[in-house]
Amino acid sequence: MNKFGLTLTNRGVVTGDSSLAEMYELTRLVDGDARWDSVWVGDSITAKPRLDALSLMSALAARTERVRIGPGCFATTPVRPATLLAYQLAAIDVISNGRLTFAACMGAADNSEFEHFCVPAVTRSGRMEEAVEIIRLLTSQDDVSYHGKYNDFDSLTIEPRSVQRPIPILIVSNPNPNDARNRERGLSRVARLGDGWMSTTLTPELLGEYLAEIRGYAEEAGRVLPDDFDVVAFHSVMIDDDRDAAFAEAKRFLDDYYFLDHSEAMVRRWCSYGPAEQAVEDIQRYIEAGATTVLLRICSGDQTTQYRRISEEVLPAFTY
Fold first, then answer.
1. Range of the domain at 136
2. The pLDDT of residue 320 is above 60
3. What is the pTM of this model?
4. What Cα–Cα distance (Å) separates residue 154 from each residue in 149, 220, 238?
């Protein structure tokens, strides 16, 4: 049975598409509905301002009992000090009693945050990889030493210790299919470092193609991917029986969110818009391509109504 997660729009407190009270209430509803497995929040600091992901995950951890909690995805991994980030994630894992999943992302090269935090964008992949290694070490061992290109320390122990030893880490990778070098680097990184893989902009066809390559890279590296290797597809939804109205609202949401003027093709790639049957069809394609978890982000200023429609009109199609 596939798992479903709800991605909250913590950027909505800036764009006006959500509020802290609404996010708390949606999280309460998800925690009480066994068809939902997890709640996720976006991450950015200055590039796309929002309520801080770590702070919000802590608050959600304290307000829930069942669902897993994570960032979808943590784009600022390279700009945050890795040892401090490990400490903060361990604390959230303690607060949630072992329900945290981390999703490491290296961010976009043109992201202004790198300049704001005095981190050269060209170093982002190396910094992210070191952060993944450090978080995994510090949430599984005591008295850790690490000597890398960007991090160097001896005899470090994180306390209080995380409940999960270690915290599971998804690697985010969405390489351009026409860029052979970055495609190989990104997917082989997932195969080497990931407890799972998160994709955020891929079509179902590319997801299936890339998953096969990840398995191939893992085999080349002598790694057997675990049975619980999570393949997470991030997808957006806007349900309205009037397809034109659904498109207009989804485009408005995405334009405000990303400071872009999205074409119809771009909106279609990001989002299922229109009647609920469209979302069911698109989600099924991701599942058939190999997704084990589907994260649904609501592209609407009426998050609560959309949540109810997804729960009542979409999820029943996947309840076996």
1. 3-318
2. no
3. 0.97
4. 14, 32, 49
